[in-house]
Structure formats: C-alpha cells, structure tokens
Amino acid sequence: MTFLIEREIITQKIKEFQIKEFIEKSLKGVGLSHTKIQRTPLGEKIIIYASRPGLIIGGGGSNIKKLTKELKRNFGLENPQIEITEVRDINIIAQIVAERIASALERYGSVRFKGVGHKAMSDVLNAGALGVEILISGKIPSARARTWRFYQGYLKKCGNIALTQVDTAYTIAKLKTGIVGIKVSIMPPDTRLPDDVKIKKEENPVIEEIEGDDVLNQKIQEETEKESSNSKKSPNKEKNEK
To answer: 7, 98, 121, 205: most buried, per Cβ within 10 A?
Structure first.
C-alpha cells in the first residue's frame, strides 16, 4: 500500500514538472518567473508569474485559450484554470534577468556582451539584491568557447542558503556563432543569513504595584509599630511592680 502511494506521488510530481517545462517553452519573451500548480475540487489551478501578463493573455484571450487547449490535449487535464500574476520587481528574478540577457545578445550580437552583462548586474544590485553572478558561456567574442563571469556583491555558494535562498536560472541565446549558455544567480534582499545576529537592548522592567501588596505592607508596618511601642512601655511597668 505504501509503495503504491509513493508511486502515485512520484507520478504526480513528474507530471507537474512536465507541465511547468511545457509552459516555459511555450511562453518565451513574456518575462516568465515561475509557475505553481494547485489541485482544487474543480480541477488543476495553474498560477503563472510573469512580468508581461498581456502577452500571455493575447488579443481577446486568444493566447490563453490556445494554452488551455494544449494543456488539455497533451497532459489530459480536465478543467485547467490558468491564473496570471504580474511580477513587480523584475530585476531580482533570475529567470527574467537571464531572458533579458539572452534577448539582448540575440539583438546586438556577441560584440556588446560585456556591456549587456554589466548593465544587467548593475540593475540587479540597484534593485536591492545582496549579490549576483552572471555566467555567459560560448564562442564569444572569438572562435574558441570560453566562460565570462560577471560578479558583484555577496553570494553564497554552498550550504542550505545556497540551495534554498539563492535564485538560479538557466537559458540559452541563439547567435550566428552558435548557442550561448547563460546562468544567473541572485541572492534576494530578504535573505536571512545564519551569521546575521542582532542583539536587542534590555528594556527597564516596569514594576506595577498591586493593591493587595500595599495592604499587606501597611499591616506589617502597623504591627512593627505596635511591637516597638510595647517594648518602650515595658521598662515602666517593671519599675511600678518594684
């Protein structure tokens, strides 16, 4: 029984990965960030995060209708509901930055690749990112393939932060000299590092007086006063007895 459940979960995850891969290939040039798939009683809900939602919808919703039909036909989805969410800050999304670099290289060629890399790196840092690394690999600018690295800021390369917090994306640009690979890694501004420790100042504790304590203290004070008065009267009594 457990084996069948695990097998079903693995099959669902593979199907979700194939759907995301299909959407990524179908929606190029729309500033696609990422895709989420949720299962609802009405069917599968697909949330697409992109910087240009108008291009996904198309004129009169033609593009989104076409995408819905293709998802039904290719993956057997009964009632896929596509929801599009606009991404506001596009300069800290690694996938969008990588696509912009690829489109710039395809437009201007490999001659201006250094300017394209430095421009993308400065835009990411101006958006508040802690660090960025851009790798452009291919036959640029010469006939021999090599890798150019654009790096600035602080970027984790290993550990849990590098796996869970650093946003990494891969894409390609088709040039006359051949295919160029692009890898972008960005550490977002809200990343919490394990060595980031903040010491809070100790605040002065507020002591509130309780009415019951006041009454108790008053009674204790009255009893001490009575005892002290009795001790003063006791020598006079001894003299009278003598």
So the answer is: 98
Q: Is the pTM of this model over 0.85?
A: no
Rounded distance, CA 110 to CA 145, Å? 12
187, 204, 231 - which closes a domain: 187
Q: What is the pLDDT of residue 239?
A: 46
Residues 154-170 have pLDDT tens digits of 999 888 888 888 999 99
Tokens representing 14 are 């593979």
- Strand pairing partners for 45? 38, 81
The whole-number pLDDT of residue 145 equals: 85
User: Rounded CA gap, 138 and 118, in Å?
Assistant: 17
Are both 96 and 84 inside the same structural domain?
no
Per-position DSSP letters for 64-119, written without gaps between them? HHHHHHHHHHHH--SS-EEEEEE-S-GGG-HHHHHHHHHHHHHHH-STTHHHHHHH
Whether residue 194 has a cis bond before it, omega within 30° of 0: no
Is 230 inside any structural domain?
no
Instruction: Kindly report the number of other CB atoms within 10 A of residue 185's CB atom.
Output: 21
Give the 3-state secondary structure of residue 6.
Answer: helix
Range of the domain at 97: 91-187
